[in-house]
Each structure stands twice: as structure tokens, then as C-alpha cells.
């Protein structure tokens, strides 16, 4: 089967060399792989590196470099999918590491009868320092990220969404392309439509890819806020594409606001109880996160990091919900113009 290996990137010149090495190392026959590289109008050397890779001969069926003038991720995937000629379309973020059997294991799973496949996606750091390792523990923890199966699942099963998925091309022909009005949540909405079109999404733990975490605490907070914000906005167009766990940080923020108002009215008991309960869980999850780890004093920051991530995500969702009616109205107005 011909595999279209699709990568979209914006200012990822530092990540591409490693990713290209991983693509070259794939044990699936290179003659049955086409590489589709989409540049989101980068301002660094991303496109130049893509072009250089396309000029090299590594035995691939073809290597194509395209531009995503709209810059947004959903539009980039649509550019790649439209240009793809493969029987299987495989999507990979540029900031990713993959083992040599990544393509072949996805193909094996598809050939077993599946239409959409994906696997585990552990987090890694580019540079192993005590502080970055602390951030890695926060992001890798269920308390700091989510309970999505693609993070740590160990059993083959059917799920609502996968990371770095492989799709039979017919899936997009039937379910349609990505919604270019969305950012961050385009996968959730796309996978929702794929399921509605009658396809199952297979999680296979034998398939694995690695995602680099943000390099700074500030970067992680910005990411969490953005994720939450887009969840709030996307509720206006596809409320069914999310799970309950997506709204836990929002519930926490709501609880803080409600008990805070009650405290201002003279009853501080509920706020104190909420804070005590959160601190207990926060400390417990921090201890679990550092178990069997070499000790660094930075680990003492974990409870505060967890709290900041939850607040950033929850506040982002709340603001997204507030902005959502205006955003939906703008989409409808732009569509009618």
C-alpha cells in the first residue's frame, strides 16, 4: 500500500533534521512512501530545509513541498490530504520523534481491517535538565495532562480520538476534510465526524510516537490556555466532540469562583474545604509523579505547576465559552459574505 506521510510545520527548522532522520530510517519500503511536507509560511529556514530534503534521494516514491497560505493547522492538513495519492494518509507533527517501525506498524494495523489507527504518545524533552525533567513529569502525569488513552494505554481498543493518526484515504472522502475555522480542536471535531460517518478509531499500543513538551513553564501555560480556549469556542459548532474530562479544569475554576463569592458573603467554609481537598490531591499526585525518579529540588515546584496548568486550562475554557456566541456569529457572517 502507498503511504502518504504528511508533515506540516511552522518555524520548525530546529526540529526537522531529527524528524527527517526518523523518516529516512523507516523500515517500510521507501518506494511505497510519499512524503508531503507543508510549510505554514515560516519565517525561518523551515521551507529551505524541506526543499533540501526533497532534493535528496532516499528512495521515496516522491517528496513534495507545499505552502499553507492560511497558516492555521487545519488548513495545512487539508493541503496535505488534497495533494496525497496514497492509500493511507499518515499525519505527523514536526515536533515529533518516531521509531523505525512507525509506518509499518500503522500499515499492519490498517491491513488487519481497521480504517483509522493510532497509538501511544509519550512525552519527552529535547534536553534533559532537572527543571525540564520536572516539567516533563507535570505534562506526563494524568493530573497534569489528561486520561486520554493515547498517552499511556496498554490495550488495543476503540477510542474517540488518536494522536498522529493513520487513515485510509476513503475516510476523508466520506467524512470530509478538516474544519478550517478551528484551531487546537480540529482533531476532536474531525474524529467526531469520522465516527459519525461509521468508522471506528483503533488505538493500538504497539504503535508509538514521541512528542516534545514545551521548553518552558510559560510555554506550557500558554499551550494549556489555548487548548482550553478552543474547547470553549468549539462548543458552539461541535459540542459532541468532547469528553467529560475536557471540562474538569473548568469545573474547578467554577467551583473556585462560586465558593469565593460565598466566602465574600461571609461563609468561608466551602472555599476552605475546596482548597484543602485540592491541596491534598495535588500533593498526592505530585508524590506519585516523582516516585522512582532521581531527586531534584525542582520537584518541590510540582504542586504549583499542576495548579497553574489547571487554572490556565480552566480559565481558557471559561473565556472561550464567553466568546463563543460572538465567534459563531462571525463564522456565519463570513460564510454568507
Automatic annotation (TrEMBL):
Give every Glycosyltransferase 2-like domain span: 4-174
Please give the Pfam families that the UniProt record associates with this protein: Glycos_transf_2
Transmembrane intervals: 244-264, 271-290, 296-322
The highest taxon in the source lineage is Bacteria
Question: GO MF annotations for this entry?
Answer: glycosyltransferase activity
Keywords (alphabetical) are: Glycosyltransferase, Membrane, Transferase, Transmembrane, Transmembrane helix
SUPFAM superfamilies named among the record's database cross-references: Nucleotide-diphospho-sugar transferases (SSF53448)
Family annotation (InterPro entries): Glyco_trans_2-like, Nucleotide-diphossugar_trans
| Family per similarity comment | Belongs to the glycosyltransferase 2 family.
Q: Which PANTHER family match?
A: POLY-BETA-1,6-N-ACETYL-D-GLUCOSAMINE SYNTHASE
**Designated name of the protein:** Glycosyltransferase
Record organism: Mediterraneibacter faecis
Q: What is the lineage of its organism?
A: Bacteria, Bacillati, Bacillota, Clostridia, Lachnospirales
Amino acid at each position: 500500500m502507498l503511504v502518504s506521510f504528511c508533515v506540516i510545520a511552522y518555524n520548525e527548522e530546529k526540529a526537522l533534521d531529527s524528524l527527517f532522520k526518523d523518516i529516512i530510517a523507516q523500515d517500510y519500503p521507501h518506494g511505497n512512501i510519499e512524503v508531503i511536507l507543508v510549510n505554514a509560511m515560516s519565517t525561518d529556514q523551515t521551507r529551505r530545509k524541506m526543499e533540501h530534503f526533497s532534493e535528496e534521494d532516499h528512495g521515496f516514491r516522491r517528496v513534495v513541498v507545499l505552502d499553507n497560505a492560511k497558516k492555521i493547522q487545519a488548513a495545512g492538513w487539508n493541503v496535505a490530504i488534497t495533494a496525497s495519492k496514497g492509500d493511507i494518509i499518515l499525519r505527523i507533527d514536526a515536533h515529533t520523534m518516531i521509531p523505525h517501525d512507525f509506518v509499518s506498524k500503522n500499515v499492519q494495523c490498517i491491513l488487519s481491517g481497521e480504517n483509522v489507527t493510532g497509538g501511544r504518545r509519550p512525552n519527552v524533552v529535547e534536553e534533559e535538565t532537572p527543571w525540564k525533567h520536572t516539567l516533563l513529569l507535570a505534562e506526563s502525569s494524568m493530573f497534569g495532562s489528561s486520561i486520554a488513552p493515547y498517552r499511556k494505554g496498554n490495550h488495543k481498543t476503540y477510542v474517540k480520538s488518536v494522536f498522529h493518526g493513520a487513515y485510509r484515504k476513503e475516510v476523508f472522502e466520506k467524512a470530509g476534510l478538516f474544519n478550517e475555522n478551528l484551531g487546537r480542536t480540529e482533531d476532536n471535531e474531525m474524529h467526531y465526524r469520522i465516527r459519525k460517518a461509521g468508522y471506528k478509531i483503533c488505538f493500538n499500543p504497539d504503535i508509538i510516537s514521541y512528542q516534545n513538551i514545551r521548553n518552558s513553564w510559560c510555554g506550557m501555560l500558554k499551550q494549556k490556555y489555548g487548548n482550553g480556549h478552543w474547547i470553549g469556542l468549539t462548543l458552539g459548532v461541535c459540542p459532541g466532540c468532547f469528553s467529560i474530562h475536557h471540562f474538569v479544569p473548568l469545573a474547578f475554576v467554577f467551583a473556585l469562583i462560586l465558593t469565593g463569592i460565598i466566602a465574600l458573603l461571609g461563609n468561608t467554609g466551602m472555599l476552605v474545604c475546596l482548597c484543602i481537598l485540592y491541596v491534598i490531591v495535588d500533593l498526592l499526585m505530585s508524590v506519585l509523579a516523582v516516585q522512582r525518579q532521581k531527586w531534584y529540588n525542582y520537584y518541590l515546584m510540582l504542586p504549583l505547576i499542576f495548579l497553574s496548568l489547571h487554572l490556565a486550562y480552566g480559565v481558557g475554557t471559561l473565556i472561550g465559552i464567553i466568546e463563543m456566541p460572538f465567534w459563531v456569529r462571525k463564522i456565519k457572517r463570513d460564510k454568507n459574505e
